[in-house]
Each structure stands twice: as C-alpha cells, then as structure tokens.
Write a structure and sequence with these properties.
- It is built from 22 helices and no strands.
- It is mostly helical.
- The longest helix is centred in the N-terminal third of the chain and has 36 residues.
Length: about 450
C-alpha cells in the first residue's frame, strides 16, 4: 500500500473510531451520554436531553434517523450518528460538541437546498412537457410519463452497433452506437445529457429526422427544449434556413426560441442574405423586450447589437448596446453586473471597437469575470492587423479555453497573409480543427471551406 493510501486509511479509521465512541456512549443510555456532555446535575441533564433531541431532529431531517424526538439515546440514534460521521471528512471527536452540531446544520442546509432544487426541477420539467404537448409540432416529442424512455421498435438501434463500428466505422454507425450506449446510463439526468449531445451530432450531420427520434428518448421536458434549440442552430449552420425557422417556431420557451432565431440570423448574414437577417432581428427584438430577467436581456441585446452592426445598421446597433449596458448595470450583484458588462464588451469587440471593449473591461474591473470579452477583443485587434495589442490582450486571459480561442484568432490574419495556397490550406484546416475543439462549429466550418478553396486552387 502506498504512503498516501495508508494515510487516508488511518484517517478513515480515526474518524470511524471517534464516531463509534460517541455512538456507543449514546447507546449506553442517559448516564453514559451525560458523561459526553460532562454535567450530571439536573440542569445538566436537561441540557443533555435538549441536545439529544436536537440531534434527533437534525438527523431526522437528513433522513438518517426515523425514531421518536424524545431526547433519549437509542441504538437507532447511534446508528444514524455513526452513518453521518463516517460520511464527513471533518474529525468531530467522541462528544456532542458544538462542532458536531455546526456540521449537522451545514449538512442540513445543503440537504434542504438539494430538495428545493429537485422539486423546482420537477416542476419546471413538467411545465416544459405541458408546453411541448400544447403544440402540434412538438407533441410527438414527449414520451408519456408511464412509458419511460423506451423508444418505439422502429426507432431502436440495431443490436451490436458498437461492434459493427469497430469493423467499418462511419458517421451513421458511430451515432447509432452512441444511442445504443446511452441505454446503459442509469441516471436519468446523465442519460438525457448524453442524448442531447447525440442530437447535436445528428443535426450537424444533416439527419434532422434521426435527431428528432433521439429527442423523443429524452425524459426531461427542459432538455427537449434545449435540444430543439440546438437542432435549429445546427440546421442554420448547414444553411437550411427554412428547416431552422420551422424548428425555432416550434420551441415553446421564449429564451430558447430567441437564441435559435439569432443563430439563424447569424447564418443568414454569412450567406449574404441581409434582408432575411434584418427581418429575423425585427422579429426577435420584441421577444427580447418581453423577457423579465435583466441578465438574459443584456446577453441577447448585446448579440443583437453585433448582428445589427454586421447587417449595416450602426445606429440601431448602438441603441441595442446601450440597452444591454443599462440592463447589465441594473443587476443587484457585482457578479451579475460583471457578467452583463462582459457581454457588452464582447459585442464592442465584435463590432470592431476593441479599444472601447478594453476600456469598459478596465473601468469596470471585470477582466477576471469576462474571458470571452477579452478573447473577442484579442480577435478584433488581430483582424485590425494589430498583433502587438492582440497578443497583449491574449496574455490577460487566464481561462485556458478562451486563451486558446484568442490565440487561434491571432493566427488567422497571419495565415491569410501567406502567398502559398497549399500552406494556407494546411494551416486553415488545423485552425478548423482547433475551432471545433473549443466549441465554435460555425467558425470551424468557415475555416474548413477556406482550406478547401485553397486546395482546389492548386494547379497540380
């Protein structure tokens, strides 16, 4: 046994011995328990009874003790206390100390929070299911509660998909293998998450019908809505705007629908469909105004500002940016304000104003809370052919993923300046892979398209 393993074992043994000592003391009866409280007077006995009753109540709320709340020691109380003490890493000794009760109170607060979140999650999931069932376009995606997550026979992936893929891997069989593997996940939330990732892969592969079949396997109504948003976004990335709009229109949740609408608008701009993008923005803005959460409004208005600037409407872009900043500054907490102002700084950088973005970040002292804004500012400086400023901003980013994003953006203008198409093709293909790995599939596809265009220009 290694030395760290030996130390951990000794620590567990010490905690178990202390827990057993107190459990034995309680099980022995009032006299022995009184020794743990160290006072045998009538007043001391009353204090002991009150502390033991408090112990019973706390352990009861933690669902470890199911006996009476009578202030008397018992074997059931001893077992509950032993279970609790063995589960905590804090040495609590062999007496009913204040430290023990403080740890119990802390554990109970966490237990209450977990129960509240679980109840809230169930209520929100049920509300989402009801919203999906209320629309003909999404009614077929909701599995009846008593049907579990078992798919229809016609949707069941073929047996042995994993082994078939080992012999001849293809995108279709890899996705089928992933669906099959998801059946082994027992925790519903983890299974829903895995299925939602499969939906993204299917949508990006252009198999929307298969993606909807996978969505039917998801149990949580909230995750179904998120997957519909991801499906609409992927359809837009594939330039299938009509399908993306139909999917977005079917989303009953306001926030998810707006996010899908803005993703569609961005893809229309990339395709040169400026009029369609303007129409999409005009439809999205009133929906954003109707949202009640200021941080959600700040995030979405900042995105609208960037899109309006790209569509050639700088006045409307500035108006959206001012509204986003006002929302951000209304946030009651510093973290909320920092996050909201980070959205504004990101939009400024995307609008080709990195100096203003950096000034907002510095004046608001939000650098640590706004890595995405710093990455956007670095990218804007790189596009403005200012590599020194771009490198300086990139060095300010502590979060690895966003630093990677900034460094990739810093490399792109230098690759564009190369004269040899084969060199550009090789480097742009590597950039595409890196952009995909940092979670930017749209930019990855653009880099891949540029790499392919370079390759096709080769004379030989």
């Amino acid at each position: 046994m290694s030395q760290p393993d030996s130390c951990r074992l000794r620590g567990r043994l010490r905690r178990t011995a202390a827990a057993l000592a107190l459990a034995v003391c309680l099980a022995a009866g009032p006299g022995a328990a009184g020794a743990a409280v160290s006072d045998s007077s009538p007043t001391g006995q009353a204090v002991e009874d009150a502390r033991i009753e408090t112990l019973q109540r706390l352990l009861g709320e933690l669902e470890l003790y199911r006996g009476p709340l009578d202030g008397r020691p018992s074997a059931a109380l001893s077992a509950a206390l032993l279970h609790f003490q063995q589960s905590t890493a804090i040495p609590l000794g062999s007496e009913l100390t204040d430290a023990l009760f403080e740890q119990l109170e802390a554990a109970l607060r966490m237990h209450r929070l977990a129960r509240f979140l679980a109840t809230l999650g169930r209520e929100q999931s049920q509300q989402a299911r009801e919203a999906l069932l209320s629309q003909p376009a999404t009614r077929d995606l909701v599995t009846p509660p008593d049907a579990g997550t078992s798919p229809d026979a016609k949707e069941t992936p073929r047996a042995g998909a994993v082994f078939a893929c080992l012999r001849a891997p293809t995108p279709d069989c890899l996705i089928a293998a992933a669906v099959e593997a998801s059946h082994a996940i027992e925790e519903p939330r983890l299974r829903d998450w895995a299925l939602s990732e499969i939906v993204k892969a299917q949508a990006r592969a252009g198999t929307s019908d298969s993606a909807r079949a996978t969505i039917r396997r998801i149990a949580d109504g909230r995750q179904i809505i998120v997957s519909l948003r991801d499906l609409a976004t992927a359809q837009a990335e594939r330039r299938d705007v009509d399908a993306a709009r139909a999917t977005a229109d079917s989303i009953p949740d306001g926030l998810a629908r707006i996010e899908a609408m803005l993703a569609i608008t961005a893809r229309q701009l990339e395709a040169g469909a400026g009029d369609g993008a303007r129409t999409g923005l005009e439809l999205a803005v009133p929906r954003i105004d109707a949202l009640s959460e200021p941080l959600q409004r700040a995030a979405l208005r900042a995105r609208v500002a960037s899109l309006r600037w790209r569509v050639g409407d700088p006045g409307a872009a500035d108006a959206s940016l001012a509204a986003a900043e006002a929302d951000a500054r209304r946030m009651p907490s510093r973290d909320g304000r920092a996050t909201g102002l980070g959205f504004v700084a990101t939009a400024l950088a995307e609008m080709g104003r990195p100096a203003e973005a950096m000034r907002l970040i510095a004046d608001s002292r939000i650098g640590d809370a706004a890595p995405a804004a710093l990455a956007a500012a670095a990218g804007a400086a790189a596009r403005a052919r200012d590599p020194v400023e771009a490198g300086r901003v990139a060095e300010l980013i502590a979060e690895p993923r966003f630093r990677a994003v900034a460094l990739v953006q810093l490399a792109v203008p230098r690759i564009d300046a190369l004269s040899e198409p084969l060199q550009r093709a090789a480097l742009r293909a590597r950039v595409a892979s890196l952009r995909w790995r940092v979670g930017d599939p749209g930019a990855a596809d653009a880099s891949l398209a540029a790499a392919e265009a370079d390759a096709r220009r080769m004379p030989s």
